[in-house]
Design goal:
Blueprint (H helix, E strand, L loop, with lengths): L2 E4 L9 H16 L3 E6 L9 H13 L9 E2 L4 H13 L3 E4 L3 H9 L9 E2 L2 E2 L18 E4 L1 H4 L5 E7 L6 E7 H7 L4 E3 L7 H11 L4 E5 L6 H10 L6 E5 L19 H6 L4 H7 L9
Parallel strand pairs: 1-2, 2-3, 11-12
Antiparallel strand pairs: 4-7, 5-6, 7-10, 8-9
Helix pairs in contact: 7-8
Length: about 290
């Protein structure tokens, strides 16, 4: 059975871009008799707010979206993330890193004057300052990074499937190991606080919820090779992905939570209907079961 999910963070109001992603995932599953699940990505407890979580539920229900089973909250999932980290650590695939963002920026720009640092899905590619020459046990007080070279030692490529705009036509993305080394680097899987980083949490949670199809914005396409690699390392099934176009403002800038002018709640307050929202973002009227 097809299982999709919507995974917002309760750090601000849902906007038209969120509605677009949630509706596509919901309608895709419902049209095929599948399940649509909801996950609250509240790892960052310093920014998460219960009032924003309540607004998420209210906005989704108003849009006519229903979800199956209990809501999964990342803040309650630390044991699952730690188990995944331990599995990788036991195989010598992690190392401790105490570098700050400033340290990384300074190191990335230091080697050769005039050579531009390389940017990956998480920003500047980590230059390997703390990478050990041999496997070591990460310091619990440090962030934990994936030793990309070690992680790829037994495979030459990683692949995942992508659905086109019609949500039917599939193509294979095949990523050679050189791409991971040159264009992604040793990604952080946990933070100095001990909390899981996004890449690890999303992979563990998709596996726990048995997600078969991940529907999300095109801005996350660059992160998907990381997720496919982690799924391979953790013996998880790799979902099929669909990275949809982003909803943008009139100036071409993608929407963010600070763009309150595009918040669903604002349109609701002005008298818009759920079908009006669908029309604004170029989607058909509500799917009738």
């Amino acid at each position: 059975m097809i299982r999709t999910r919507f995974a917002p963070s309760p750090t601000g109001p849902l906007h038209l871009g969120h509605a677009y992603s949630a509706i596509i995932a919901h309608d895709f599953a419902r049209r095929q008799g599948g399940a649509f699940l909801l996950r609250i990505e509240d790892l960052d407890q310093s920014r998460a707010r219960p009032e924003w979580e309540a607004q998420i539920f209210d906005d989704l229900a108003w849009l006519g979206l229903t979800w199956d089973g209990p809501v999964l909250r990342q803040a309650a999932r630390s044991a699952a993330y730690e188990a995944a980290l331990s599995s990788l650590s036991d195989r010598g695939l992690l190392y401790g890193c105490a570098c700050s963002r400033r340290d990384i920026a300074d190191a990335a720009s230091a080697p050769q004057e005039g050579v531009e640092p390389i940017w990956g899905p998480d920003g500047l590619i980590y230059p390997g300052t703390c990478r050990p020459s041999k496997g070591s046990t990460p310091d619990d007080r440090a962030a934990r990074r994936l030793n990309m070279t070690a992680a790829l030692s037994n495979c030459s490529k990683i692949a995942f499937q992508e659905l086109a705009t019609d949500l039917q036509t599939a193509k294979n993305h095949i990523i050679n190991t050189s791409h991971f080394i040159d264009n992604i680097g040793d990604v952080a899987l946990s933070r100095r606080s001990g909390d899981a980083a996004y890449h690890l949490a999303v992979v563990v949670d998709d596996a726990a919820q048995h997600i078969t199809h991940v529907v999300r914005g095109a801005d996350l396409l660059g992160a998907t090779p990381i997720h496919a690699l982690l799924q391979h390392l953790l013996n998880y099934r790799t979902p099929i992905y669909h990275h949809h176009a982003l909803i943008r403002d009139p100036d071409g800038k993608r929407l963010a939570k600070r763009d309150d002018a595009k918040a669903i709640a604002k349109f609701r307050g002005e008298g818009a209907s759920p079908d009006n929202i669908r029309a604004m973002i170029g989607l058909p009227s509500r799917y009738k079961l």
